[in-house]
Amino acid sequence: MLRSTTLALGLLLFSRVDAxxxxxxSSMPNTAAPLPSDFVGLSIEEPHFxxxxxxxxxxxxxxxxxxxxxxxxxxxxxxxxxVGGTPEDLILLDSNQKALINAxxxxxxxxxxxxxxxxxxxxxxxxxxxxxxxxxTLFTWGINFRSLDITETVKQAAAVVKSFASKKGKGVVLExxxxxxxxxxxANARVGGTLNSTYWNAATYVKTWSDYANKVVTxxxxxxxxLQVGAFANSPSPYDQWWLPGILSGGVLGTKAVQQATNVWSxxxxxxxxxxxxxxxxxxxxxxxxxxxxxxxxxRLGEQAAIAARSGLSYIIGETNTAANHxxxxxxxxxxxxxxxxxxxxxxxxxxxxxxxxxxxxxxAYNVLQPVPIESGPAQNxxxxxxxxxxxxxxxxxxxxxxxxxxxVELLTTTSNTAGYAIYESSKLKRVVLINFDPYIAGGxxxxxxxxxxxxxxxxxxxxxxxTPYTTSTTGLTWGGVDLTNINATASSMKTTRYQGNSITVNxxxxxxxxx
Length: 516
Hints:
It is built from ten helices and 24 strands. By secondary structure, it is of the alpha/beta class. The protein folds into two domains: about 130 residues, Golgi alpha-mannosidase II (Immunoglobulin-like, Sandwich), CATH 2.60.40; about 375 residues, TIM Barrel (Alpha-Beta Barrel). Strands 2, 16, 17, 18, 20, 21, 22 and 24 form an eight-stranded antiparallel sheet that branches. β8, α4 and β9 form a beta-alpha-beta unit. It is globular. The two termini are about 20 Å apart. The N terminus is likely disordered.
């Protein structure tokens, strides 16, 4: 009865009702891919780590911890954290410095109210801020490579390891060390590269990284920690000198010691590269929350993941978000980022990616949250604040669940504006995710909807929905009727409805999750 009423209202309120068909395998296909409980991770710009972790060791940012704890409760796993970004290659360690960090920032612009640091020095205690996060939190720390000072690189690696081994480590775990951020851009002046392009190329990188990595692993006792290689920014292409197979065959892992210490290849992915440079306003709704666009940006990643696996390396997205250069207001901080995050994350998992670290800084449009009050720019707020992308990651973690054995398979669909995924636990169907990518714009045509018929769907179950007033909305977003920007909102307040039959109506700019 409820379903009939909902459908009738939908026909009255929406100008176009299209139809899509999907097939839901009742038993788990052999092609189902692991959906790890620690799939969703954060990446934090290193000079802003104090805002996220807290300004002193033992004095954590309680707002950040509370927001992350909600995500942790969904999977029973703390979000893994990578600290790095472009500034990791200009940061110098000063053993005599008393302040945790001294950083220099240029003046802000309209496009980037909070630009990246241009110089920074840190004390060895800076790494100790990791202990402000919950016990068992996994950390990846980036260390300076672009300075091409092997002594500095080894010194930073030793300080990181020492910090986590100390009593002040309080149970946080150093998972990996990243030697260098986006080394394929070290000679690209457009993005701040400073090295000479006649000198710095893929062959030089392979030899230099291998030498530095070997010096680190032979000089520093890493314990259970590993190295991760890559952290490339270039979109993977077999016609590019930075193509993964060439880097591996060129000997980047070098010595046996480096091979044993390195267990991950990291790739960086941004969907709107340079989208915000010079034109931060008026991004077209549906630019990134687009089925074809997401798949065109991920197909090469799956190929690379398979190649990395043959070399004994897991493949992760070590830094990612909507649009490069800190995002674009009206897109990166809007409902579109929620829809993008859900499809993008599940798509990555289906092609063999083990983790995705979503990048954050301070005042950035694409931040998951603003950890402290923001004094200027579109994100200005007198209080710390949760942004739209947080809801997307919340949905992904809820879909993953807490079983620690979830697997995912993408469902074939008959339309180009929808996507579907089936989630299995212990080979049993547990959840189905349905996405309607169609944008809905204020002042435009009436909101459309898609009636999705799913063959093989259990005849009844519960459905929870992501709602947004418009694709471009930055407020009014809800998941199960709850606005997650409220730091005190809890899962117990969320609502589901019952469905019966095998057809589900999914409105434009909506995500629906079915539970069985």
